[in-house]
Amino acid sequence: MTDPLLAEIHVEDLEGTWAVAGALAGVLRAGDLVALTGEMGAGKTAFTQALAAALGVVGPVTSPTFALVRSYTGAGGVELLHADIYRLEQLAEVVDLGLPEQLEEGALAVVEWGERGAPALLPEYLAVTLTPGADDGERWIEVRPVGDPWIGRWPTVLAALAPLDEAAGDGP
User: Fold this and answer.
1) Tell me: the pLDDT tens digits for 139-152?
2) What are the angstrom distances between the C-alpha of 65 and each of 19, 28, 92, 138, 166?
3) Which of 6, 46, 47, 60 has the fewest Cβ atoms within 10 angstroms?
4) Are 131 and 38 in contact (CB under 8 A)?
């Protein structure tokens, strides 16, 4: 039995990751949070770079590992916050980043290692898990809605991913 609140997409290369991120960028709006999960080297920053490009961010998007949060401006003035909370040890440190407040002001955020800070972030977000495959660039990308607002938007997310969802139901 497949989970109706889970989309699993197999991509064979970096271009596939960019296609998934680009499709998701089309459904995001101000105040949204995307929580990225995956081991070191799974492609979280590459996913964010693709999402930023699809949102119209011009210029390099780099890992915020040491800066913790980087801000970019996309097309139409959308502010994209890119956070990496791997090095934070306590939820209070995640709270200190002020992401929920910035989201309330209209920013859009992507948080690497989002599962670590979920209790201190918003109760509703789009969870994206990246799992590397056997070949370089190959990944399984799982997308799941968390919270009622995202569950309500889930049909729109699925419609955006449908052209890419060649391997639905085949897990990593």
Assistant:
1) 999 999 999 999 99
2) 24, 24, 18, 23, 33
3) 60
4) yes
